[in-house]
Amino acid sequence: MPSYATLAYDWCKVRLGVPCITAAQHAAMRAELRACQAAIAGCNDAQQPFENDMCLQAGARCERYLSYYLNTSRSPHNIRGAWDGSARGAPPEAVTAFLARPAVRAALGVAAGAPPWAASSAAVRRRFAYDAYKTVNATVARLLEGGLRVWVYAGDLDYMGNWVGAKAWLRALQWPGAAGFAAAPDTEFVVDGRWAGRERTYGNLTFVQVYEAGHAVPTDAPAVALQIIEHFMDGASLSP
């Protein structure tokens, strides 16, 4: 969670030349952080039932922490973009049309009576009310320990799923290769003759920072997204 304050102030200065929030707002964010983190810890207390009230409190307390950026006019999915409060991250119409095709629904195994695909659902969101702040550390560690390849990527203009936090999370993840991953170098890679991002790999864990892309990397940097997928499928490094 500390990454949201870092990104809103320090990283915005790096990428945009100016911070996305004021120094006073940055200080206020950092002051709100402790309550947010305490609620998250309570939500993940193994002695408590899965659906415990601290998970709902985490939502409320962390929303206050995040609100300093979210109340600006900047998009939560791309710090370069503006946001007017409508349809966050709504997909292109072509995506909706594609997923409505009978052949696509059949290929995906969608039940005949299922409603059309939608970008969001308040009903589904309510059912995940207790899940939003649950940790997946143990799950990811088991995947790595089982020998499965895990790749995590993030566009470096995204705020909500920001690269600073994703990288910090992986550096702190406890698994047999933790020390090696923490010490591994970041190496730049090229796509179509241009520097496209940085990759850090150790064993079967890879993190990719995609330059000049927001939350929707395939939309903002389609050639880079394709190369990430192809190299993941092939088990190959992006770097030379």
From TrEMBL:
Record family assignment: Belongs to the peptidase S10 family.
InterPro entries: AB_hydrolase_fold, Peptidase_S10
Record GO biological process: proteolysis
Alphabetically ordered keywords of this record: Carboxypeptidase, Hydrolase, Protease
UniProt key word Transport: no
Protein name per the record: Cathepsin A (Carboxypeptidase C)
A molecular function GO annotation: serine-type carboxypeptidase activity
Origin superkingdom: Eukaryota
Short name of one Pfam family: Peptidase_S10
Species assigned in the record: Strigomonas culicis
Keyword Lipid metabolism: no
